Amino acid sequence: MKYLVVTIKDWNIEEYKEYSNKFKGEWHLITNKEELTLGNLKRINPEYIFFPHWSWMVPQEIVDNFECVCFHMTDLPYGRGGSPLQNLIIKGCKETKITALKMTQELDAGGIYRKTHLSLHGSAQEIFVRASKKISKLINFIITEVPEPQAQEGKVMTFKRRKPNQSEILINENNSIDDIYNYIRMLDADSYPNAYINYGDYRLLFSNAKIQNGRLLANVVIEENNA
C-alpha cells in the first residue's frame, strides 16, 4: 500500500520522518502547493492522502478521486472553520479533541474516522508539536484498521478564521493577566503572527510568555511600526 502526507509545518514534517520508517506501506511526502496536482497523485496512487496541516483549499478533483483525510483541532461538529486553536483558547478551553475526518466539498463536514484528546496547555508551538504526535497515532489507526468514516452528530458550531490584524493586544480594564498570557501563547508558534502592542511609531512583539508570582513575563521584540 502507498500513503501520502501533505503538510507545510515543520513539526508535522519532523513527525513524518519518524513514522514513515515505522508504519507499514510505502510513504510519500508533499510540502509544496505546486506539487499537489491530480497528475502527481495518480502517479503515486495512494490508498489515503493525509493532510495534517494545509493552508489552501484542496482541488475538488483530488477530493473526488482519492480518500483524503484531514485533522481538525476541535470536537466536530463543534468548531468547524478557521483558527481552531486560537478560538478555543479565547473561549477559555483547557483541552480539546483532534478529529480525523474525511474531506468533502463542505468544509470540516465529512465523516469522522476517530477522535483523540489534546491538552491546550502551553504555547501554540508546544500544542502543535504535541498534536503532531497525536495525529501520527490517528494515521496509524486508519491505515491499520481501515475504519469507515461516520457521519457527524450534534449541533454545528462554526469558527471564523482570524486575521493578522487581530493579533494586537487591546488592553483595557477588563483584561486579566491570564487573558494577556493566553493571547500571547495562542499566537506563539513558527510562521504565526506574534501578539503585539502598538506604541507610537513602534510595535512590541511578544513571545515565550509565562506567569510567575502573579506577574507576566515574556520576550519582547521592538520594531518600527509599518502598519
Our Rg estimate from Cα atoms comes to 19 Å
Task: List the uncertain runs.
Answer: none
Strands of the largest sheet, in order across it?
A: 2-1-3-4-6-7
Annotation, overall tally of beta strands: 11
Q: What's the average pLDDT?
A: 95
List SSEs in N-to-C order: EHEHEHEEHEEHEHEEE
Count of helical stretches: 6
Derived from helix and strand composition plus strand pairing, the structural class reads alpha/beta
Helix percent band: 25-40%
Descriptive notes:
The protein has 227 residues and is of the alpha/beta class. The chain folds into 2 domains: 2-159, 3-Layer(aba) Sandwich (Rossmann fold), CATH 3.40.50.170; 164-224, Methionyl-tRNA Fmet Formyltransferase, Chain A, domain 2, CATH 3.10.25. The protein is 27% helix and 31% strand. It contains 6 helices and 11 strands. It has helices at residues 10-19, 38-44, 60-65, 84-90, 124-145, 177-185; strands at 2-7, 26-30, 48-53, 68-72, 78-81, 95-102, 112-119, 157-159, 195-199, 202-212, 215-224. The protein has a 6-stranded mixed β-sheet, covered by helices on one side. A 3-stranded antiparallel β-sheet has the order 9-10-11. The protein is elongated and about 55 Å long. The N and C termini lie far apart (50 Å). The model has no long low-confidence stretch (mean pLDDT 95).
Structure summary:
With 227 residues, the chain is α/β, with parallel strands linked by helices. Helix content is 27%, strand content 31%.
Topology overview:
Blueprint: E1 2-7, H1 10-19, E2 26-30, H2 38-44, E3 48-53, H3 60-65, E4 68-72, E5 78-81, H4 84-90, E6 95-102, E7 112-119, H5 124-145, E8 157-159, H6 177-185, E9 195-199, E10 202-212, E11 215-224
Parallel strand pairs: 1-2, 1-3, 3-4, 5-8
Antiparallel strand pairs: 4-6, 6-7, 9-10, 10-11
Helix pairs in contact: 1-5
